[in-house]
Amino acid sequence: MRPGPLIIAFGLLDAGRASSANQHKWTYPDWRADKIFKRQDGTGACPLPQAMLVTAPRKTPFVPLSQPELDSIIEWLGSSSLGLNLSDPSSSTLAMSDNYINHIEILKPNKTDVTNYLSGNASSVPRYARVVINEGAAKVPGVVQYYVGPLPISNSTTMRPLDYFYNGPNGPKVLFSGGLYDAPRRRAVEAIVTKTMSSIADVTLDLTGLAYYGTDDNRTNAVYFVQNPYSTDGTTGVTWLPWRRLAQNPWDQPSDLYVSLDITGTDPSLYHLRMIVYNLIVYNSTDAFRAAWAAGEITKTPKPTTNDSFLNKNRTGTIRDLEGRFAPTMLTLDGNRYRVDVVNNYVTYMGWSFYMRFDKDTGVQFYDVRFKGESVLYELSLQDALVQYAGNNPFQTGTAYSDRFYGIGAQAVQPIPGYDCPYHATYLNATFNDGGSLRTIQKSLCLFETDIGTPLTRHDVYGNWKQSTKGSKLVVRMIATLGNYDYLWDYGFVVDGSITVDARASGYVQADYYRAADEGRWGPRIGETISGTMHTHVMNFKCDFDLVDTKNTFTKTDLVVENITQPWYPERGVFESMRYNISDLASEAEGRQLPVPANGQSMYTVVNKDHLNAWGQPRGYRILPGLSNVYLPSQNSPFFLKSGQHAKQAFSVSRQHDTEPASTAALSGNVPEAPLVEFWRFFADDEPLQQEDLVVWANLGMHHYVRAEDLPNTLPAEAHASLMLAPQNWAFRGGENTRDLANAVMYQWNITNAEGVVVPETNGVNAPGCLGLGPDDELLGVFEEQ
């Protein structure tokens, strides 16, 4: 039987406090044996943390369309007066050449409208719907976005093209071939794939062990992916299909077979085979492929293995020593220290407050972020997660994913309690508009407070005093599974006023077929017939700073080394020394492409020069690059030519405009030459940046150097990127922001008990009695044992 946990009777810690007249002694009695500090067996369990409620100062302006609102909009769009000639999008006979509604959601409100409302200068925020319509029957087919409103539907409601923030060459329209990959198009692609592949099934079975007769045929043992992007500007559609073994984890069971299709236009009868590639040899038709096979002219390469046990996560091997014990975990022992208004998605925590919004395209977003009542950020939000691959075959070379296209928020998953999120976390549902429906993903966000693992501050002055302040932060976590990868995003609000953003990746790598002749130039061999493929993840974040107000400046502080002489060092002559060179970004031309500071010798800060601290310094926030602030290494890849402009530099700084709400758009993913948003056009007018409303666009990511340890799953401890926003001269009275925290301890040599033991000041905050403490956890005696 295990002994009961040991605890301290914390109520005695302040007993016998001595006056300052007591002298500091260097020898003390054995306090551990003193009956005053006798340990007691813990008999009570810590109470389950209860929800701590708060009421938002104003109802959230970020409310998705209700189902009745969606229904009323759909009915209104179908009226004959509009002449849209819409087909039912749920029909099994829906064709690409039809006009139909693809998606309806609330149009994210303009910042000016939201800030007017939150400040009390407006009673409400105007509501409009964003409507995406496949216009297959148009003279020039495409996918067009409109905004409908004001809502609710009335005689004043209108429908207009959503062209005020889509600055691409086609405005709010994506030409058809670069548009949706929805049910009608999937059926059309499946039809030509089935027709093509079933005609050469005997050939592919012999060469690869794979055959495809269609998704519903039991003889099928293969699966294909559709390469993105599958267009350049929407006028043509071309894709490559890699062939993989049909299994639970096909991403890591590739073959050496690739098929290319022309999928241009709305007429599926025109879809056709372009070429077949096997062992890097191109065949322009199924007849040519079969003829070469029949003539014995094809050199076979190894087939993908049928043993996929290397991809399973079932536990194997001898259990490690003591691994049978439950791993350490993070617990809330004294009740939650944050409050949530679940109706308005509003949170307060240790001086922090913010609203949350959930977006189908990108997931959780944060608004009106304040610290100790003062504005820090209007918006903090993920914009997109890009992945660019390279390799010695047509699929990997041309693969460039924009995960916003698939709906990062729509792919959010419910975390596993105690594993993905700590026990006792608070879970929030994600509700958003998906197609023509209101959809909720249960418990898709978790909130929890965590020890950051280090003290916020600490210091020892030997023999005189010592102090330490507990470090903690509130974390909002979202996990989304996008095909083969699982992404975990953490947004942390630290009690010292800092904000952290962490991105991690796990799941399955998109492996490549192993070829010895490649010599590892695109990735090492990691399996019998597979190799890892080099690729880069880039995640773009919008940081709309409103430090105190909307008049902010981006300051660059360079640490420069120069040769100097000084009269007090005559013997040194000319020698190297350092100083600061402080400058402000004058205009957007300077803010478009900012690098990660080399050797950390530059500091990026957003400041408000109209609001100084007590020492006359502009109050601000520093932008601290963390782990792996990477961007796309290729600046001119045809697969991210213009659609990836937001991901081609570490940082960018622009003026905030309601007409520039996002750095990219979901439907830009398949039209790299004609995206809906051309990010660099934000900077074309070269507006001034000093004491203006600024947005910092920051990139995090990973150059994924794939390794054998990526199987079965990528390890997120290594696949990790981060960013910190930290106060810089922010406190009005000067100094750091933690002196008002009670979770701190202070020892002073002349404050002792009757036995001469220095008694710490704990500000009345002590560990709860249910916490089992060992001999080395005592607060008494620490000062004497240095």
Automatic annotation (TrEMBL):
Topaquinone (TPQ) is generated by copper-dependent autoxidation of a specific tyrosyl residue. Keywords: Copper, Metal-binding, Oxidoreductase, TPQ. Residues 91-155 form the Copper amine oxidase N2-terminal domain. Residues 254-310 form the DUF1965 domain. It comes from the Eukaryota. Contains 1 topaquinone per subunit. Gene3D superfamilies: 3.10.450.40, Copper amine oxidase, catalytic domain. The keyword Phosphoprotein does not apply. Its cofactor is Cu cation. Residues 329-730 form the Copper amine oxidase catalytic domain. InterPro entries: Cu_Am_ox_TPQ-bd (IPR049948), Cu_amine_oxidase (IPR000269), Cu_amine_oxidase_C (IPR015798), Cu_amine_oxidase_C_sf (IPR036460), Cu_amine_oxidase_N-reg (IPR016182), Cu_amine_oxidase_N2 (IPR015800), DUF1965 (IPR015328). Belongs to the copper/topaquinone oxidase family. PANTHER family: AMINE OXIDASE, COPPER AMINE OXIDASE. This is Amine oxidase.
